[in-house]
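Before the break, one more example. Copy the sequence into your notebook; we will annotate it together after we see the structure.
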Amino acid sequence: MSSAAEILVIIVSVVLAVFLLVGIVLAVYLIRLSAEIRKIAKSAQETVDTVGEAVQGFVRMTSPVFIARSVSQFLKKFQHKSRKGE
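Here is what the structure looks like once it is written out:
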């Protein structure tokens, strides 16, 4: 083998070794990133569940209040009209 071929083999092997190390480091960072994303997604899901429960509680509470308010307004209007007629 000529010296030029030996130099090319050395250069290619060094470049491949560098790419292998960069690939390993990148894989480690991607694994850490996916773990963080999983934690954030879990936290966001818990937050959404909590907000959903709060909204359901608010809806349950406001429905009777809205109905009672509407009925009381109707009764006030009815009483006011009946007093005018007297």
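The CA atoms of residues 8 and 14 lie 10 Å apart. The chain has one helix and no strands. Try to locate both features in your own notes.
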